[in-house]
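Regression report. Comparing outputs from two consecutive submissions.

Submission 1:
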Amino acid sequence: MNAASMAFGQPARDGIRDRVLALRAHAMFEGLDDDGLLLLAEHAQVSCYAGGEAISVENEPAHAVYLVLDGEVMVSSRTAELTSRGPGDAYGALSLLARAGSTVAVAVGKTRLLQIPASAFESALVENYSLLRNSLRVFGSAALKIRGNLPADPDRTSVIDEGEHYLEPRSFVEILMLLREGLFGTTNLDALVDFARCMIDERYPAGAALWSAGDNSSHALQIDAGRVRCTSPDGRQLEVGRGFALGSLDIWAGNRVHDARAETPVIAFRIDFERYLALLEMHPEVGLDLLRGFARELLAAGATVHSTLPPR
C-alpha cells in the first residue's frame, strides 16, 4: 500500500480539494453539504495498490469505507458472489456499520482508492447531520428496493399481533413502552421521551385507505392495534400489526411506494416527517442505530449499496 497513507487523527491537507471533488462525484454522497464533504475529506487518504495486492481480508474488523478512483477491485466473501468495483464505486460501508467482518478485496491492476477511516466516518455521521441524513436516504432507499417497495420482506412470514382496541387514549408512559417494544428498542430515554411527545393518536375504521402509492410522504404511523394490508404497485401484499412502524422508509423515497389499507379498525400514533427529521438531528445516535439496522438487513440479503444506487 502507498506509504503516503495517513492515520486518522492526522488529516492530510495536500490534495484536499481533489478529495472533496472525488466524494462529491459519488452518488453515496450526493446532496451532502460542504461541511460534511470537508469533514470526510480532511481524514480521507489516497492509497495505491498493485495488481493482485490484497486491500482487505475476510472477517477482520472493517477499517474504512473505500471509493475507487482508478482501476478495479474484486470483492467477495463466503456468503456473497464475486463482484467488481470500478471508478465511482464504493464498498466497505455495510460491513463497517453492521459491525460485520470485512470482505475479501483484491486490486485488479494498478488501483487508486480514497479511504475514509472507520472512526472518521462514524464520527462524521454523528457530527454532521447532512451526512447522517444523506446516508439514511441511501441506505433506506436500498432497503426499500430489496423489499420490493413494501415495508418489510413479504417472504418472511410472521404471526401478526393485532393488539387490543381501547377507548381511552394511552398515557405518556404507555406510549414510551410501545416505542421501546418496537423500532426504538435501544434508544436512550431522552430521545425516547422527545419522540413520544410528538406522537399523535389517530384511528381508522376497517376499510379506510391510509394512503395510496404515489401520495406525498408526510408522516409515519406506529401501529398500536389492528391490522393493515400493504400492496405494492406490482400486486405483492404484506400485512402488519401492532408494534410496526409503517411508512417510516417512505421519507427517503419522497412519495408513498405502496398502498396501505386498514383491514380492521386501527389505532396508530402519527409522527410527521419534518418533526421526525428534526428529532434525528437532535439525537444523531438514533439515526446511527437506524443505519446499522439497514446495513445488517442489506448484508443478510446479499445486497450492496452501490448496486442499489441510481445511475449517474
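Submission 2:
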Amino acid sequence: MPGGDVFVNPPLHEIDPADLMTAAQAAEWLHVKPGTNRVGVHRGKLQPVDTGDSGPRLYHRLALAHAEKNAWDNGANRPLRGGRKTARAA
C-alpha cells in the first residue's frame, strides 16, 4: 500500500453488520494471506472497526476493497489474479 492513502471506516451507526469480517474472512474474500491485513493495520493504512467490545478485530468490506484496489493499482503480487502488473527490477 504505497503512498499516503488511509482507508477509513464509515461511522459505526452506518455500518451493516453483514459488511464486517474478521481478518481470516477478509483474507479469504480477497484471496490474500491473513497477514496482509495486519500489515495494513501496522502501517496505519487500514483500521479495524471500533465496535466497543473485546471481540475479534473486524474490518469493513468497503475499506478492505479500497485498500486492495490501491495495492493492485500499485503492483501488488496477486498470483490468483494474474500476478504482478509490472516486472520488478532485480
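Expected: both submissions complete independently.
Actual: both completed, but the second showed a warning that disappeared on reload.
Relevant detail on submission 2: The helical segments are 23-30, 35-42, 61-73.
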